[in-house]
Specification:
Elements (H helix, E strand, L loop, with lengths): L4 H6 L4 H23 L7
Amino acid sequence: MKLSNEYLSSVTGGGKGLWLAIAGFGIFIVGVFDGFMRPLKCNK
């Protein structure tokens, strides 16, 4: 089965969602690292 150029150009992927997931994971990792470096001082 050979794919035509029209079909290939009409296919859209989930690239935007992938970059959003990578950015969200990066923010999560930075938050966890920040939480270990500067823990809350509320239990004193």
